Amino acid sequence: MNLFDHLLNPANWSGPTGITTRLLEHIGYSAAAIAIAVVIALPIGIAIGHTGRGNLFVSATSNAARALPTLGLLTLVVVLLGTGAAPVVLALVVLAIPPILNGTVVGFRTADRDAVLAARAMGMTGGQQIRKVELPLAMPLVLSGLRSATLQVIATATVAAMAAAGGLGRFVIDGQKRRDGYPEMFTGALLVMVLAIVSDVVLGGTTRLAQRRSGGRRKVRADPFDAEVPGNKSDNASDTEGASA
């Protein structure tokens, strides 16, 4: 038995149950869950990180997410909402929120305090501080949280098949029902792994790019404040020279 038989057969790539359809379904579930999680978690994380209030909520949410059994959560959602794509996406959203929320809060906490204080001294409003200083400096850790959430969602979306939905998990579930289903199961597992690796590489590169830009912004912001120092020193030096004369 060749494990690549199902994957390399062109006939298996087309149709409503083909590899292309299942792959797009898997990406669709994952992208929808991540998008909804970002819309929910990012504003909350920014508010908590900027004000410093609600840290206990973030800690409790993160700990609860680690202890939350994925299959149990999916089963609960299916019981309450029924089968289909909506329960799957909802369960994935619940799993994706904590990493994004935690990454955003930690990013704001660890932002350069000198830059933040300088922004306040310049009279920036809270919104301006967030947009121009804190969020750009926190972006590497925000993206790191997004990266972690994306990998978790892609892997977990495989259980969507248990909720009578699509996705690459269908190959695993359907393959188990067949005596010669190992190549089909292998196809599902392999494609999930490849999708996760590609996503990790792309988001990893984006995170490194954000880190370089964050360092550049920090340097650019520091220069205007540092530029006042030489002037002050020059004034002091002039005063000293005048006193000596």
Computed structural class: mainly alpha
What's the order of the H and E elements? HHHHHHHHH
Can you summarize the main beta sheet?
A: none
Number of DSSP strand runs: 0
Distance between the termini: 97 Å
Share of β-strand residues: under 5%
The helix count comes to 9
Unreliable runs, pLDDT <50, ≥5 residues?
A: 216-245
Question: Radius of gyration from the CA trace?
Answer: 25 Å
Looking at the structure, what is the overall shape? Answer: elongated
What's the helical proportion of residues?
over 70%
> Averaging pLDDT over every residue, what do you get?
82
Short overview:
The chain has 245 residues and is mainly α.
Structure report:
With 245 residues, the protein is an all-alpha fold. It is built from 9 helices and no strands. The longest helix has 63 residues, at 182-244. The radius of gyration is 25 Å and the shape is elongated. The N and C termini lie far apart (97 Å). The model is unreliable at 216-245 (pLDDT under 50).
Architecture blueprint of SSEs:
Elements (H helix, E strand, L loop, with lengths): L4 H4 L10 H33 L3 H13 L2 H12 L3 H25 L3 H9 L4 H31 L12 H8 L5 H63 L1
Key phrases:
about 240 residues; elongated; about 0% strand; mainly alpha; 9 helices
